[in-house]
Amino acid sequence: MAKEVPVNPFNSPLVPILLSEKDTLDFRCYKGISCYNACCKQADITLSPYDVIRLKKRLGMTSTEFLKQYTVPFEMDAHGMPGIKMKTQNDQPVCLMMSEEGCSVYTDRPSACRYYPVGLMAMRAQNSPDDQKHYFLVKEDHCHGHDAGGKTQTIAEYRAEQGVAEYDDANREWYQIILKKRSSGMTVGAPSATSFHLFFMVSFDIDRFREFVTASNFRKLYVLDDNEFDAIMDDDYTLMRFGLRFLKQVFYGEMTIPTNKEAVTKRFEERKDIFAARHQAEVAAEKDKDDRYGDLD
């Protein structure tokens, strides 16, 4: 059953009702509609790891090249967790993938484009192992698809038609990492710049992460048999899934990748002075922040 929820009162396009897969929407988008391509001219598209893999393969470039040419960074939360959005034209928010015929990468379009005008909301209660999914509608002035009529279907049917299930399945663990971070934080202390750099590389720059895993030090620390190593080297999707396991292990101590304990101990001993210095710098930065802004509380 649909549930009413609070919404930003400042002309928000979000319809303040949470929907389930059984709820329906009346929406139709087609080439002859008066607003055709309008959404691509008002683009604000956040990308997921699987989006990047699909698009960089479609365009025949490395993930590093794709990030540089087609994306811009942004902060996903108040702590500065890094995300990326599709780059648009310099003078207006027009998607670089748009053509007069429509989306030039339509079969590999991002999940946010596939969902539109449906939005996905994932929530995870603190200390809960499971996340819950809800949906909502977006009604923007430039979109006339809600008034086109003639196509009523359930959210589940719309998701199947748009092929978003594959994207959701591929990105599920990534969303879980973000939700867990928001609800409980990293394992120790505040997120560091190093942890965010690692998160960005694993999430979005899959080809650079492959180089990271190929480095000799990685296999000294993590125990991978040759078959598993070959699999993650040969396939971006398999490497992405491995990378998400790696992030969970580094950030939250979910030990699913065996480690060489002797090598880990040796590495810690070699780097403990760096860890100590980094901790002291973070403590000093927090103290400086408190000294400057504490009287404003």
The rounded Rg comes to 22 Å
The percentage helix is 40-55%
> Largest sheet at a glance?
2 strands, antiparallel
The N- to C-terminal Cα distance equals 42 Å
* Mean pLDDT, all residues: 83
Low-confidence stretches: 4-10, 292-297
Q: Strand order within the widest sheet? A: 1-2
Strand fraction band? Answer: 5-15%
- The rough form would be described as globular
Number of domains in the coordinates? Answer: 2
Query: What is the H/E string?
Result: EEEHHEEEEHEEEHHHHHHHH
Name the structural class. Answer: alpha+beta
Q: Count the beta strands.
A: 10
Q: What is the helix tally?
A: 11
The multimeric state of the shown protein is single chain
Describe what this molecule looks like in 3D.
It is a single chain. The two termini are 42 Å apart. The chain has 2 domains: 3-182, no CATH class; 186-296, no CATH class. The strands form 5 sheets. It has a two-stranded antiparallel ribbon with strand order 1-2. Strands 3-10 form a two-stranded antiparallel ribbon. The protein has a two-stranded antiparallel ribbon with strand order 4-5. A hairpin with a 2-residue loop joins strand 6 (98-99) and strand 7. The protein is an alpha+beta fold and 297 residues long. The chain has helices spanning 49-59, 63-70, 111-115, 155-162, 164-184, 193-204, 206-214, 216-221, 226-234, 236-252, 261-293, and strands spanning 3-4, 17-18, 24-26, 71-75, 82-86, 98-99, 102-103, 118-123, 132-137, 152-154. Helix content is 47%, strand content 12%.
